[in-house]
Amino acid sequence: MSTGLSECADAAGQMSGAAEALAVLTARGPRCRERAAAFAVSVLTRWADPADWASAGLPGRPASARGPAGCPCLVPVSHHAVLRLARSAMALRVSDLASAVRPACWERLAAFMRSRVPHDDRELGRIEESGLRARVDAGDTSAEVLRGLAAALERHRAFDGEDAYATGVTRLNLALAYAGADLARASALAVTEEARRTALCRAAHPAVLEARGFLAGLLLARAEAEPELRARRELAQQALAEADLTRSAWDRLLGVTSDGAIASRALAGHALLLLGELGKARVCLECALAFDARRAGARDDQCRGRISVLLARVHAAAGDHEQAIGAAGRALRILGQDAPGSPAYQHAAAFARELAASAGALYQPLVRNGST
Prior knowledge:
By secondary structure, the protein is mostly helical. It has a domain at 1-135. It has 15 helices and 2 strands. It has helices at residues 2-22, 30-47, 80-94, 102-114, 122-137, 143-159, 165-179, 183-200, 206-225, 229-254, 259-274, 278-294, 301-317, 321-338, 343-358; strands at residues 48-49, 75-76. Strands 1-2 form a two-stranded parallel ribbon. α7 runs antiparallel to α8 and α7 (165-179) packs parallel to α9 (206-225). The longest helix has 26 residues, at 229-254. It starts with a helix and ends in a 14-residue tail after the last helix. Mean pLDDT is 87; it is low at 360-372.
């Protein structure tokens, strides 16, 4: 029996190590992620009991060498190592799926685990939190999602601490969920998180850059909602300064095809559009799309679709109606396939209707007769 328990401990250790290693592979290409997900499921199938992972939404071929059910060398499914590896496997599996279908995948895994682990298990909570973030990405910012993320934030505060990275990630996830309807609350959460990360890390740390980029996005959202021209320009200028700073830092740290660099270029292009710098905005957005096409990691159709909408707006503001319609159509195709219920798709659809109604008229939110 002691030998069996030792083997069980070894298996749990291997699963924990695999979960840590696999978590970073979402930055790799699709074939690498597919192989990594298959490997994770094969490890779960071989060492975890029970092993009906297809029911959890993690299908894979049964392992050829597996002990019988109840064997002491098998790790119970309630073990934290099993839940961590299952979460890594699901993250890899859904990385190339459309945003609209990801929440159901996470819910299937969570439902599988709920019947096997205590409801207050921390690893189960992380799986459920991944599902909530997937719902936000798909455009679901319902009261249920907000309550779930707020509860997750409180759990992280209690167990991980106010300044823990996991707490900060959840704080930004909650801010993202609020961004569509309550910019003031979203901004308060994001400012708090940016200040904490800056106090704990150096200014060019990826965690700080992520928070600053999020704040730049909120500044642009406020600018879009601001009716007074001067105030809009001031907000856009602030956003541009933040976007330029984060872009140059991401370029140095991880290269121009990194998620952060692409997102920062999109933010800069958005700010330049609002400032009437249409030539610079077009170049910035076209570079973002070109770099996005070369990226190796998990696809982000929401980002690509939003960039295409911004490019359509730039072409429309410059009077190039044909190019604007083409870019808007591409955005609708991308976002319609990825998450037709998302705010990004709804914005693209509204702008496409505006283009059709204008029949060639200039779309100039801040530009008036060619002047700013």
